[in-house]
Design brief:
There is one protein chain. The strands form eight sheets. A seven-stranded mixed sheet has the order 15-13-16-18-29-28-27. The chain contains 15 helices and 29 strands. The two termini are about 40 Å apart. Strand 19 and strand 20 form a beta hairpin. By secondary structure, it is an alpha/beta fold.
C-alpha cells in the first residue's frame, strides 16, 4: 500500500486528532509503515522530540499510534499564541519569530514550501502518511493563504475525508455546508465524511446519511460511536470545556484541582494523575473551587506574567498562598513554577520587566531570548524520571533559607526559616513543589511516590495503585481507537481511497433538488 490522506473536520475539536490516531493505529496493525503529519498546528500543548525539536503533542501521540519516535517533519509549523493577536512561530521544531496575523500572512509562501517538503520526506520514508487538517477547511476568509487544509491537499493532491461531531448537533448541515463553501477544485478532493461521537441507534441515523450521500455524491466512511474514557492528548484548551472530572475506579479518593490559566499550556501533564485509580482531577477557575482540593496544580503557561496577573485578579493567588501557609500541597510546573518564585524578570515574553512572584519558593526567574528545549533525565523519591523542557524562563533557586510556607519539610535555618530541598530540577519548601519538567508524572514510580507524599502532607488516607502503568493506559487507548476504525469504518473503502486518491466527477446537489 502506498498513498496519503487528509483528515479534515467541520470545526475545531470535531475529532480530527483522534480519528487520525485511530487510522494510524489500525494501519500499523495491518503491517503498514505509516506516519502522521500536520502541516500547521496552533496549540499550546507541545512535546520535545529526541533531537530537541518542539512539535504539537497530538502529533507525538499519533506517532506513538504508528509505533514511531516523533520527528519535526510530523509537525513542521507550530503556532503558540501568547495573546489574542500574537503567536510564536515554531518552524521545524525551532522558534523563528513572534508575529501578529498580518505578519504571519507574509510568511505563508515560505512556510507552505516548508510544509510540502516535510510531507514529501515522510512520504519517501513511509508507505502511508495520514495528515490532519486544522480547524475547518471551509474557513473561506483564510483559504488564499491556507497551508493546513485544502491548500495542502491541492499542493500534494491528497484525498480528503471530513469529520463531523454529531454530539454538538447540526452535523448534516455542517458537513454539507463545509463542502458547499469550497470551490470546485477543492470539492473534487473531498471523498466523503465520517460521523464522530455518535450516541444512539444507528438505524435512526440512516435516513440522514442516505440524504447526505444523495446530495453530495460522496461516501460516508463510518459512524464512530461515543466512547467514554478515551481522553487523549489534545491541542485546544477549549476541549477542556467538554471534559468532566475524571477518576479511575478503586481506592480512596485524592482530589486534584488544576488551575485553568487563560494561556494554559501542556495541561496534559496531569493526564497521568487522572489515570491513577482513586484520583479525581478537575480544572478550576475560582478560589472557592480550591477549598476541598488535596493538591492544587499551577500548570504551564505561554504567558507567565499575564497569567500571574489574572491569578491575582481572580483571587486565586491569595487562595494558593493561604493553602501553602496552612501546609496544604501545591505543585507548580514550568510557568506555574515560575509564578511560585520570588521575582520574575521578563524582558522577552511580556516585556514587563521585574515582576513580583507569589514568593512561595526561594527562587528567581529570568526570561531569556533563546528557548530551552530538552529531554532531561533525573531522579526523585529514589525513582528515575525522564521528562521534557519547553521554556524561556530560567529559574535559579536561592541557597539562602526561605520562610516556610507550611508543612514540616525543609531544614530549619536562622530565625525559623527553611532551606529549599531539591525536587527534580526545581525545589520544594514545605508543602510547595516546583519544577520546569513536563511529563514527569508519566513516570509510574515517581508519580506513585509523589502522590503518596502529597497524601501524607494533606492528611488523606490514600495509597496509589502499585499496578497502574500510564504508558500501558495510553497504548490501550490507542488500541481502542484502532478498534473503532476497524469496527465502524469502511476500511476497504478507506484503503482504496488512500491508494487511488479522490474519485473524479463528484457532484454536489442543492438541498431539495
Amino acid at each position: 500500500m502506498k498513498g496519503a490522506l487528509l483528515v479534515a473536520g467541520t470545526t475545531s475539536d470535531a475529532g480530527k486528532s483522534v480519528v487520525t490516531a485511530g487510522i494510524c493505529r489500525w494501519l500499523a496493525r495491518q503491517g503498514v509503515r505509516v506516519a502522521p503529519f500536520k502541516a500547521q498546528n496552533m496549540s499550546l500543548n507541545s512535546f520535545v522530540t529526541g533531537d530537541g525539536a518542539e512539535i504539537g503533542r497530538a502529533q507525538a501521540v499519533q506517532a506513538a499510534a504508528c509505533g514511531l519516535e516523533p520527528s519535526a517533519d510530523m509537525n513542521p509549523i507550530l503556532l503558540k499564541p501568547g495573546s489574542d493577536r500574537r503567536s510564536q512561530v515554531v518552524v521545524r521544531g525551532r522558534p523563528m519569530a513572534d508575529v501578529d496575523a498580518m505578519e504571519y500572512g507574509a510568511l505563508k509562501d515560505r512556510l507552505r514550501t516548508v510544509a510540502v517538503e516535510a510531507l514529501d520526506r515522510l512520504r519517501s520514508r513511509y508507505d502511508v502518511v495520514v495528515c490532519e487538517g486544522a480547524g475547518s477547511p471551509a474557513e473561506i476568509n483564510l483559504r488564499r493563504g491556507d497551508i493546513a487544509n485544502m491548500g495542502l491537499a491541492q499542493a500534494a493532491r491528497l484525498p480528503v475525508i471530513v469529520v463531523g461531531d454529531i454530539d454538538r448537533g447540526g452535523v448534516f448541515a455542517s458537513m454539507y455546508g463545509t463542502l458547499a463553501l469550497l470551490d470546485a477544485a477543492d470539492q473534487s478532493l473531498v471523498a466523503g465524511f465520517v460521523v464522530n461521537k455518535f450516541r444512539g441507534a444507528r438505524e435512526l441515523l440512516e435516513p440522514g446519511l442516505d440524504t447526505l450521500r444523495e446530495l453530495t455524491g460522496r461516501e460516508v466512511y463510518g459512524v464512530l460511536p461515543w466512547l467514554d474514557g478515551l481522553w487523549m492528548d489534545v491541542e485546544d484548551s477549549l476541549a477542556l470545556d467538554n471534559r468532566p472530572p475524571v477518576a479511575a475506579p478503586g481506592g480512596r479518593t485524592l482530589r486534584v484541582a488544576v488551575v485553568r490559566l487563560p494561556r494554559i499550556s501542556n495541561f496534559t501533564d496531569v493526564d497521568a494523575l487522572a489515570g491513577e485509580p482513586g484520583v479525581v482531577v478537575r480544572f478550576v477557575t475560582s478560589a472557592a473551587e480550591l477549598d476541598d482540593a488535596d493538591l492544587v496544580v499551577l500548570p504551564g503557561s505561554r504567558a507567565t506574567v499575564s497569567d500571574l496577573a489574572w491569578l491575582r485578579s481572580s483571587g486565586l493567588a491569595e487562595a494558593v498562598r493561604d493553602r501553602a501557609a496552612r501546609g496544604r500541597p501545591v505543585l507548580g510546573i514550568c510557568g506555574g513554577y515560575q509564578m511560585l518564585a520570588r521575582t520574575i524578570r521578563d524582558d522577552v515574553e511580556s516585556g514587563a520587566g521585574l515582576v513580583e512572584g507569589l514568593g512561595l519558593l526561594p527562587a528567581s526567574v529570568e526570561f531569556a531570548a533563546g528557548k530551552t528545549l530538552a529531554r532531561p533525565v533525573g531522579e526523585a523519591y529514589g525513582c528515575q524520571v525522564s521528562a521534557y523542557e519547553i521554556h524561556h524562563g530560567t529559574v535559579t533557586v536561592d541557597p539562602r533559607p526561605a520562610a516556610r510556607p507550611g508543612g514540616d519539610r525543609g531544614t530549619p535555618g536562622r530565625n525559623g526559616h527553611h532551606e529549599a530541598e531539591p525536587f527534580l530540577d526545581g525545589c520544594r519548601v514545605g508543602a510547595v513543589w516546583g519544577t520546569t519538567w513536563h511529563g514527569a508524572l508519566e513516570n509510574d514510580g515517581f508519580r506513585r511516590a509523589f502522590l503518596a507524599d502529597v497524601a501524607a502532607v494533606a492528611g488523606r488516607d490514600f495509597t496509589p495503585s502499585p499496578d497502574t502503568s500510564f504508558s500501558a493506559l495510553r497504548e490501550a487507548r490507542l488500541d481502542a481507537l484502532g478498534d473503532l476504525v476497524g469496527t465502524y469504518m469502511d476500511t476497504a473503502a478507506l484503503v482504496r481511497l488512500i491508494e487511488s486518491g479522490a474519485p473524479g466527477g463528484l457532484r454536489l446537489l442543492p438541498p431539495g433538488a
